[in-house]
Specification:
Radius of gyration: 23 Å
Number of domains: 3
Strand content: 15-25%
Order of helices and strands: HHHEEHEHEHEEEEHEHEEEH
CATH superfamily of the largest domain: Periplasmic binding protein-like II
């Protein structure tokens, strides 16, 4: 067996390992990285010998990571991502200047860090400013020239803007408190916003089902709505991707329906593009694509 204390980990082996972990099958993994199944098997065997532990359990339908395999997955992703970012930073000319981005808070702690991390690795000299705000505020800031890129929600359906993902807006309740069973139904909303399409669609849905409701919480942020739901004070319309732990989506079985299949779109200012803005937009696209 190879001396596991001194043998360096080969990034090529880690890439093969991740391909198998993602595919759950040696044949599909081999196809995804352009190698034969036997070559993939040999690389896995070599990596397992180096680490001294099996990384996958073999089953009739494929493979699943062992406990040690699961430990390796996250570290392997970080190593491969760092290598890719480093290679990109050496190939591309480093940009300078500034870029200002406005984004909804639903993605501040999930998607945005991926975009900013990848962008900073390649363009460390760019001064980045982030403005967190609701979609209407970010759209207005973009029109006023206060930001260069806006990642915002739009009602579902055809749009002229670039759609990054579809993130349905749904009613959410606490598993513990089950506020959705009370009448009148306590709801948390963005009712302070004039022309807030989410509130309008949410209320139309309740009226269509003849559910009597009352506004128990009005918030300027989705974090406020989440607090209302988690505490059991009310149910709230939230993006499906933002449902917190201990809470769940209310479905047709509960007497509720999807409020809207909201588009998450990327907008820039027409006639005010630059290499720096385009590079940040690419980083945002990539981050959403890997969500």
């Amino acid at each position: 067996m190879v001396n596991t204390m001194s043998a360096p980990l080969d990034s090529d082996l880690l890439r093969t390992f991740l391909a198998v972990a993602d595919a759950g099958n040696l044949t599909r993994a081999a196809d995804s990285i352009g190698r034969t199944q036997s070559a993939v098997s040999m690389q896995l065997k070599k990596l397992e010998d180096m680490l001294g532990d099996p990384l996958f359990e073999r089953h009739s339908r494929g493979v699943v990571p062992t406990a040690q395999g699961l430990r390796l997955v996250d570290n392997a992703r970080r190593i491969v991502a760092l290598l890719d970012d480093t290679a990109a930073s050496m190939r591309l000319p480093a940009l300078a200047g500034t870029v200002r981005i406005g984004i909804s808070e639903e993605y501040i702690n999930s998607t945005l860090p991926k975009a900013l991390g990848a962008f900073a690795a390649v363009h460390p000299g760019v001064e980045v400013t982030v403005q967190q705000g609701v979609s209407i505020s970010n759209v207005n800031a973009l029109a006023a020239g206060e930001i260069d890129i806006a990642v915002v929600f739009e009602p579902g359906g055809p749009t002229r803007n670039e759609v990054l993902m579809v993130d349905p807006t749904v009613w959410v309740t606490s598993d513990q408190h089950e506020a959705h069973q009370r009448r009148p139904l306590p709801i948390a909303t963005y009712t302070y916003l004039a022309g807030g399409w989410c509130d309008e669609l949410a209320m139309k849905g309740l009226k269509k089902r003849r559910i009597e409701s009352r506004v128990a919480y009005a918030s300027r942020t989705s974090n406020g709505l989440i607090a209302a739901v988690v505490s059991g004070l009310a149910i709230a319309p939230l993006s499906r991707s933002a449902i917190p732990a201990g809470c769940r989506e209310l479905t047709e079985d509960d007497g509720f329906s999807v409020i809207d299949f909201s588009n998450v779109v990327l907008r820039t200012r027409p006639g005010h593009r630059s290499q720096t803005i385009d590079a940040m937009a690419d980083a945002v696209r990539s981050a959403f694509a890997t969500n």
